[in-house]
Amino acid sequence: MSGASLTTGTAAGAPMYHKAGSIKRERRWALIGAYIALAVFVFFFLFPPFHMLITSLKSSAEIADLEGNPWIVRSPTLENYRDLLTNGNYVLHFRNSVIVTLTVVAITMVISTFAAFALARMRFWGSTALATGVFLTYLVPETLLFIPLFQIIGGMGLYNNLLGMILLYPTLTVPFCTWIMIGYFSSIPKELDEAALIDGANHFQMLWKIFIPVALPGILAATIFAFTVSWAQFLYPMAFLVSSDQMVLTVGIVSDLIRGDTFAWGKIMAGALMAAAPPLLVYAFLMDYYIAGLTAGATKG
Fold this sequence. Notes:
mainly alpha, two-stranded antiparallel ribbon, 2 strands, 1% strand
């Protein structure tokens, strides 16, 4: 009996063992495939920055030498970076970008926070439709808006003026930031509102002492988005700014370093790399908050 039981148990356990082994192999191959796909993805997206870095370390003569290997730097030099920082208007363009971006982020967060709180908590007739309309506004392409905005900005006398950019950029940042924070504010338990109202708090105190601390990840996500859009905006500055002293980095690099058919490739690549550094640092340190904020906005909005 014991031998029969042992034989039966072994026979019954064998298929389960083979099934478990098959699952492990499938998982291993899936993991290998995922790493291969990730490696291809990383290579594909790091290829342009790597080429930019190599080119920025070359002299103009080495870049123009068609017989040299474009992927090898024979005589590395920081002259392109040094020249950008000491000559020309690159530092001025960088300063203009910082001024415009920080101002737009501040304006965007003030407007979006109050708007999101009103639409998420201070329920009134049409609030749901208005919240949806805010997001639909973000979906309108800026290529369709800059023509009427050109007439408005020109009529206000703000053509070729940084103040015009400060007024224009929120049309891109406020709708989406409001939508993100509506979702985050909606996820906060309503019991907190009721407890605050019972204690005699008004709506501003509720926003400042309850919603902003609790919804900080969503607010940071909206802030990062506003910063990125403002820093990288190209169409509006290209259409509304013409003099070099008023330009931001995105258009200043193109206008100052391209003369007719002459391209200062070394300086262009160096300038682009330095311009990409601030958003890169922001995402590197605050990526977790950005993902958390976007996830809450997508699931609760």
